[in-house]
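Input record (one chain):
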Amino acid sequence: MGKTAFLFPGQGAQVCGMGQDFYEKTEIGRKVFDRASELLGFSVPELCFEPNDRLDITEYTQAAMVTTSVAMLKVMEDMGIKADVTAGLSLGEYCALVAAGVMSADDAILTVRRRGILMQEAVPAGIGGMSAVLGMNAEQINEVVDPIPNVQVANYNCPGQIVISGKLDAVELASEKLKEAGARRILPLNVSGPFHSYLLEEAGEKLGSYLEDVTVNEPVIPYVANVTAKYVTSAEEVKPLLTKQVSSSVRWQQSIEEMIENGVDRFIEIGPGKTLSGFMKKINRNVTVLNIEKMEDLEKLK
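The corresponding structure, as predicted from the sequence alone:
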């Protein structure tokens, strides 16, 4: 008998209308959204369902994404669908913490609201940037990037897609060098900051201070941490990892490979878009991958 993992997407997957049918058609989903509005002091359904400029602003995006994925998760749990392990890409790790029983939905939503504000404030606009590097492996990219100051690998997404982050001029220089070294394409990302780079270390430290007052529990099921790509099975590991995660590389490909090595053969992506499902096709085609972003998708799980 194989194992099932729940996966949660990160920032960038947000889309207007996400989670709307879960809100309108299920009492459980509606309660998650309404509770988030109560906690945050603004209408999360309005933020997620109605066209607006705020959904793509980090301090709002993060709370909106976590609310949406947690609403879907709670509906699935009510249906009796369970996982053996869970993981989330960057911001999605907070949804994984909820799925693992480590953090309450309330605390996850409030924490990512604080995280989003800290990340937004960390680096003035125009100072930092991020670019996706296509068609090179991690070893080749690190060989080019390591000698260049002020830039680093931010995300090991999947074979052939790795993201670099740092000061804008350093990212541009690294991009030129990577093209010379054989990168197929370099795509500058439309993001509001150099996420998962050393420039966010201070934001991570401030988040660590905030986390001191947040309750974390022993995991009911393990989750795989972005920073280490290893299973986390004790509460004491959680806060230091979340503090580091803001400025550390996201080891997503390695996280998936760790789960497969531990017997996971079914992955369920919970949240808007199919980003993680797309990565999975490049990491390992021999596992089952399902995506839940609409109510009708739940039929796949019956």
